[in-house]
Structure prediction request, 705 residues.
Amino acid sequence: MQKKKIKVGLFIPCYINQLYPQVGIATLELLEKLDVDVDYPQRQTCCGQPLGNSGYEEDSKGICNLFVENFKEYDFIVGPSGSCIYHIKHHFDILEQTPEVKRVRNNAFELCEFIVKILGKTDLGASFPHKVGLHKSCHGLRGLKLGSCSEVQGEHYSTEEDLLNQVRGLELMSLNRKDECCGFGGTFAVFEEAISSKMGKDRVQDHLSSDVEVLTGADHSCLMHLEGIINRNKQPIKVMHIAEILNSSL
Amino acid sequence: MSHATKAAEFNKNEAKVNWHDKALWYVREKRDKSAHNVQGWEYLRQLGSKIKANVLSNLDEYLIQFEANAKKNGIHVHWASDAEEHNNIVNDILSKHNAKKVVKSKSMLTEECHLNPFLESRGIEVVDTDLGERIVQLAQEPPSHIVLPAIHKTKEDVDELFQEHLGTTPSQGNPEYLVGEARKHLRDKFLNADVAITGVNFAVADTGGVVVCTNEGNADMGVHLAKAHIACMGIEKIIPKEKHLGVFLRLLARSATGQPITTYSSHFNKPEDGKEMHIVIVDNGRTEQLSREDFRASLHCIRCGACMNTCPIYRRSGGHSYDYTIPGPIGSILSPGKDLKKHSSLPFASTLCGSCSNVCPVKINIHEQLYKWRQVIVKEQKQPMVKKSILKTAGVVLSKPGLYRIAGKTARFMLKNAPKFMIYNKLNAWGKARDLPEVKGQNFDDWYKKRQKNG
Ligand code: SF4
Prediction:
């Protein structure tokens, strides 16, 4: 008997859908390569994070319910954005905890974690001969525990590094501050403009000083912020989502 | 003034921001090294947190036990429900001793109660004897950090300040010279003090004694030379048993500065012969915070300052930008409980990165409490119209797939077609230091639909 394929609901966060379609495409293609049955529910919008983080959790219930409605049928819900997945797992506690809501919260996975933990794969056959700097987004790192944190005692591990280390030709550069926040923080980026920009600038500088050619990460919201700074200052670093690197065969 | 405004002000001097950030990052790295060298560090934090949780749920009993034991040791115990009562009690004790000169070692509680100006207005000289505290006192500024009160000052700043107040000669910020001069200046104050005031790091219920941690020995020096000792503490400083000090003393100094233990851990269990010892136990809003289930754990705090050192926002905005006695992440979850309106910008002065919760030796879920305060603030405080309408509209649009598809198109259309000068106007905070994302021809939905059709 043929083994039934895992059914994955692809979650493409709103800003990726609108502004970074290439990240969505890479995610989808990557998942298809990994032999899972991927479906993209077309009525999806957002996870509600921008509202929750701004204090408007109450107003986001409609969004959260819609999310559950869209994704309740899948074995797993996979998205290329750690902070959105974190929001679903941790802040959907505002909904009534029906079996569907619980299922969606339990089965939502950030892309890298899904590949490494659920599919048990690290070598995806990618090749990317560049010096790469990894930005470890806080919600993924400290929230979803995708890796060990510099503050916490214990063995070193990193889901994204596990994947990047298997990419042919890729050289993972070591940073001075391994997991400092980039300063995006959703509406923080706008309401605390001065600090947000300064934090981003400092983060970019760390990558520059470490000879990074391509800056990557598993959360494109941080990358959008860092890219904005890089482009404004015309700095010689390219920004790519980790899905794009893992999907490349240059 | 909001945190953002003050932070922007602080950021006008980028070199200073870099310096401030590096100085505190250095402390944070020292903390990492020293904490990670203790086998079972995470377990120790767990213990610290559990002991504090136990204290908070049995606070009444421990306080009464503490009072009884302290009295048995000959200590006078006073209770103050708020800052005013606290200040009056201290003032009464001073009057009884006819005290005109007071030396005080570090105590965030007396800062919180604004004791210094209260006593000074009654003709009493109060000298802060912790070096950093003395520096900010001379500069007539509040501390900008709870462990490193003058961290916002460079050695050159201190040089100038000492020239003005202590009559030192210019030394281009020579630390040895300046410390030597401060020591001479303070020695004189110690020798002539009538009464010594100290804070309390830990009040031990089963002994009735208090423990004060300093690096300079200034608490001991003050207490041993003066006729009377007044120790001021918040109700949450209680720990049940003396043996628990083994947990907290190990956690405190490593978290604060990376030292294995503070240079002095001074145990005050009873008055010296012929002298008086008083303890003032203060509530000042703490029981109210205790009643807020979501925010109760904020009272675990042992004031180590680690959350400040690690906070990427604190490091780049300085302690004064918080405009509260306790700055940084912990201040941002304590202050709204005191005055929601005044401090309503503080829970938003965070990216919710969670580093504070990771370093906190008593495992306060600081970043989760920041998130929770935001929800409370939006409900209870008037919000800026623009922010409110944007977010409320988003709530509606994003819950309706049809509307969202239209809105997405409009937003992308705007981004694509608005000339740069329009987007980068004053209202567009994003665009001040950052470019906007480049808009592609189609979004993911369009691409996917096309693929389905062709597939
Ligand atoms: S909240 Fe935790 S880390 Fe911050 S000062 Fe208090 S004990 Fe230290």
Summary: Chain B touches chain A through 72 residues (CB under 8 Å). Chain B has three domains: 1-37+305-382, 40-284, 389-454. Residues 40-284 of chain B form a domain with the Rossmann fold fold (CATH 3.40.50.10420). Strands of chain B lie at 76-80, 101-104, 125-128, 195-198, 202-204, 209-214, 228-234, 238-239, 264-268, 276-282.
